[in-house]
Amino acid sequence: MSGPIPVTLLTGFLGAGKTTLLNALLKQPAMANTAVLINEFGEIGLDHLLVERLDGDTVLLNAGCLCCTIRGDLLTALDGIWDRVLAGQVVARVVVETTGLADPAPILHTLMADPRMAQRFVLDGVVTLVDAATGMATLDSQEEALRQAAVADRIVLSKVDLAPPDAVAALTDRLLMLNPTAPILPAIAGEVPAAALLDAGAYDTTSKLPDVAAWIGAAAPHGHHHHHHHDRNRHDPRIQALCLEFEKPLPWTGLASWLEMLAMTRGTSVLRMKGLLDLVGESRPVVIHGVQHLFHPPTRLPAWPEGTPRRSRLVFILRDLDPQVVRDGLAAFLQAAEREAALQGE
């Protein structure tokens, strides 16, 4: 068994088409040996895929996938999958499908905060489905839908064929402002190639260097994220994205103290944080990510990916927190760390 099993979180508002997408994904060869965790079978039309019920909670799909209902607890369901792995069953990845009303944060916390889970499973990415026809109205009226879009690593637009092109364009613009780091992919007849949704994390699950640039959204036009305030205030004044870049290597002590303080004092306002860091005294890139007040332990990548410039990038999705407060706070901590380093060096 090599390394932790990647977990993809599939979320999206009620009626966005998660079941259609999941059905289409599970038929693709890339999804072989996937364990699928679903909240309730009752609301899911996977029946034609089910062939054999193994016990009260688990069924085997004809594509060689396991399906579990998360009746009780995500931890219990993941423990069950791990028991199967230990018993010799091949599980290449896990997909967790949440109910439409779910806030993704608690599920992300479960994966990041439980030490046993962190050794066995690793968050690969959050895929959020948005209905192109009703998405704008849903974002206007439902706080959870905004949050689901804001924390996504990939956003899939469903029912694009049912919505006028100008409505799709306006929705796309709004989603880009909410979350400039997530690629937005149209689902054609409910389908998206699995490869576009998998391996969305900054973790090496196949011994190849991950596409960190895509994960952190570094491919976005340089510096353009900071100029959308007028439009954003019109739509979603509470949620803003902040992207920071640093040319010089950063001191880990100053950065770590500041992240700790941010998590303690303003954790609920940090919906998602991702960082690719060039640290003082460290030749390899370090990846960090956080959800609200929880931060995943820093991970060293084997090397700087080709074509990724050696500089630190931090991306924050903030709710009810002025980006300038984050900028100023970080600058103060980094200056203090530099002063301390200079004093020690004298």
TrEMBL record:
InterPro entries: CobW-like_C (IPR011629), CobW/HypB/UreG_nucleotide-bd (IPR003495), Zinc-reg_GTPase_activator (IPR051316). CDD domains: CobW-like. Residues 239-334 form the CobW C-terminal domain. SMART domains: CobW_C. PANTHER family: COBW-RELATED (PTHR13748). Zinc chaperone that directly transfers zinc cofactor to target proteins, thereby activating them. Zinc is transferred from the CXCC motif in the GTPase domain to the zinc binding site in target proteins in a process requiring GTP hydrolysis. This is GTP-binding protein. It comes from Falsiroseomonas oleicola.
